[in-house]
UniProtKB/TrEMBL annotation:
Keyword Transport: no
One example GO MF annotation: electron transfer activity
Keyword Flavoprotein: yes
InterPro entries tied to this protein: Flavodoxin_fold, Flavoprotein-like_sf, FMN-dep_NADH:Q_OxRdtase_AzoR1, NADH:quinone_OxRdtase_FMN_depd
The protein's role, per its UniProt record: Quinone reductase that provides resistance to thiol-specific stress caused by electrophilic quinones.
Binding sites annotated in the UniProt record for FMN: 10
Phylogenetic placement of the source organism: Bacteria, Pseudomonadati, Pseudomonadota, Alphaproteobacteria, Hyphomicrobiales
Native organism: Tepidicaulis marinus
Catalytic activity: 2 a quinone + NADH + H(+) = 2 a 1,4-benzosemiquinone + NAD(+); N,N-dimethyl-1,4-phenylenediamine + anthranilate + 2 NAD(+) = 2-(4-dimethylaminophenyl)diazenylbenzoate + 2 NADH + 2 H(+)
Protein name: FMN dependent NADH:quinone oxidoreductase
Amino acid sequence: MTTLLRIDASAQQQDRSLTRMLTNLFTTELLQANPDVKVITRDIGQDPVPAIDHRFIHAAFTPPDAREDWMTDRLALSDALIDEVAAADIIVMGAPMYNYGMPAALKGWIDHIARIGRTFSFDLARGDFPIEPILKGKQLVVLSSRGEFGFEPGGPRAHMNALDPAIAACAHYFGVDAANIHTVAIEYQEFKDERHERSVIAAKDATRALARRFGQARGTNDACVPAG
Ligand SMILES: Cc1cc2nc3c(=O)[nH]c(=O)nc-3n(C[C@H](O)[C@H](O)[C@H](O)COP(=O)(O)O)c2cc1C
């Protein structure tokens, strides 16, 4: 059975959010293609996770068998969020661009997912690259929206895109290789012109196509459909 983890990070509610519209479309189409998909939803836009603090870091870097009760309690939400990621074959992430980067809610979620001993190991014997991911084999569908345009590689605002590179840099914590990140982005939202309308249509088409591809796959291994 395929499991989908749906994450929404927009601070806007369903009727005013383009990324929620896309995550909803992806989920609906995926279920249509494969009704057996199990869906886990995590709405960090409406229900943000608290920022990590010195107590969280102290707890996370204390070995499990040496943790005091307060440490276990402090990590409970992080453990639950990681369990959701670990259970997923596909992660669909509604990720609006806020101030050229990711919404604080999404960054807060990633701060809870990146955990030593759970999503990565750290060993200086590995030399200059001591971090090794623990989770593997997942697909990530990033459904974004931007008010401006031209953030793609080679575009006029590519140098201002602090969203897609940041998600890609952290994807190994979710068990996602670079080749398994599939990004669709609506642009021109602030212009509200024909370019925006065309962009919405193209993004919906691309989202449907991705959902159909993943819907035809079955189980963790089959979900690793080659990009293209
Ligand atoms: C707080 C905030 C910051 C934003 N910053 C940017 C930005 O830096 N660049 C950009 O192109 N659009 C920016 N936008 C526009 C959003 O990316 C756009 O409205 C998008 O559709 C938001 O996603 P949503 O519709 O799912 O809420 C910003 C919007 C908000 C609310």
